[in-house]
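Budget justification aside, the reviewers requested a transparent look at the raw inputs and outputs of the sequence design task funded under Objective 1. We therefore reproduce one unedited record. The lines immediately below are the structure tokens for a 302-residue chain.
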């Protein structure tokens, strides 16, 4: 939880691989690849829900293995690992910027917008629209139990956006007033279902009931290749102490703390990616046509 949000997590993974490549004492291509594999396994599986982490590794390995097959020597492979990690970080930052520009086009003067949790991509959409001179207001949920919504609210205030904080369960009370719900994503399944902070699916359900449009702002490396073969996205369950600090007082009572939930594609109007706006049903095309992932592909760290 030092690094929050699936985009920053992906960049941290690429940075980790870069450091491993820079500091590796390997003397052959095989031992270098073995060294990176170990690091890749740790990094790719550190946060089970955010697919951006394993996708960052997949992105780097695709390049490395194709170069290895071409018979590249150790210094070239090392240089490629370092360069590719840096390129991924730059691509990721650029993607968030583009998402901001594309998403901002959908906002209008006078809009009232609701968001949930803290997402760098949602922040990019809102700050870009604000910098374009659009006047709108944002309601941020607190986002129990870790209160990332408060981080979002402070960041919006600091750039000059009119911001209001509400408790999570006030979503339905205010919903009819909103023009948009805008949320980020930790992972997107092949059928367009979106995994994001716990509470997102409830908000999307309420938005649909009130005919308020739900926009997801997410980079294409949030799409989960494993789901093409029916793999389920693991939902990280965190410490009960995030919910109840003094668990002794509530002894013999179970406390469950899933960190994310799944919003079905029917509740999502559009996904704003760096490549443009797509309906959730087009998720499979991103996976197969853009990234060329295959069903049940062997993972680089296996
Ligand atoms: C953060 C969260 C964010 C997504 C998208 O959860 O659910 O909405 O990760 O963020 P946590 P971004 O704080 O538990 O990691 O757009 O920055 O990738």
């Amino acid at each position: 939880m030092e690094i929050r949000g699936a985009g920053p997590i992906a960049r941290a993974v690429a940075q980790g691989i870069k450091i491993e490549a820079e500091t590796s004492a390997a003397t052959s291509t095989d031992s270098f690849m073995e060294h990176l594999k170990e690091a890749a396994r740790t990094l790719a599986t550190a946060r089970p829900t955010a697919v951006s982490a394993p996708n960052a590794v997949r992105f780097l390995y695709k390049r490395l293995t194709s170069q290895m097959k071409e018979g590249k020597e150790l210094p070239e492979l090392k240089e490629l690992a370092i360069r590719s990690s840096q390129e991924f970080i730059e691509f990721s930052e650029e993607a968030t910027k583009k998402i901001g520009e594309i998403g901002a086009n959908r906002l209008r003067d006078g809009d009232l917008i609701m968001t949930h949790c803290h997402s760098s991509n949602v922040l990019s959409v809102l700050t870009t629209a604000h910098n374009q001179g659009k006047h709108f207001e944002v309601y941020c949920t607190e986002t129990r139990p870790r209160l990332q919504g408060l981080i979002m609210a402070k960041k919006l205030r600091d750039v000059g956006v009119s911001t209001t904080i509400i408790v999570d369960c006030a979503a339905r009370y205010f919903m009819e007033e909103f023009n948009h719900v805008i949320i980020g994503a930790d992972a997107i399944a092949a059928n367009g279902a979106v995994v994001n902070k716990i509470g997102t699916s409830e908000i999307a359900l309420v938005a649909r009931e009130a005919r308020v449009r739900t926009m997801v702002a997410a980079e294409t490396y949030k799409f989960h290749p494993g789901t093409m073969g029916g793999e389920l996205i693991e939902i990280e369950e965190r410490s009960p102490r995030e919910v109840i600090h003094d668990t002794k007082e509530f002894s013999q009572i179970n406390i469950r703390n899933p960190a994310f939930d799944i919003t079905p594609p029917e509740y999502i109007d559009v996904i704003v990616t760096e490549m443009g706006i797509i309906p959730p049903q087009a998720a499979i095309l991103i996976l197969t046509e853009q990234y060329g992932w295959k069903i049940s592909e062997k993972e680089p760290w296996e």
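The chain has nine helices and ten strands. The pocket of ribulose-1,5-diphosphate is lined by residues 4-8, 117-121, 148, 184-186, 196-197, 259 (CB under 6 Å). Computational costs for records of this kind are itemized in the attached budget.
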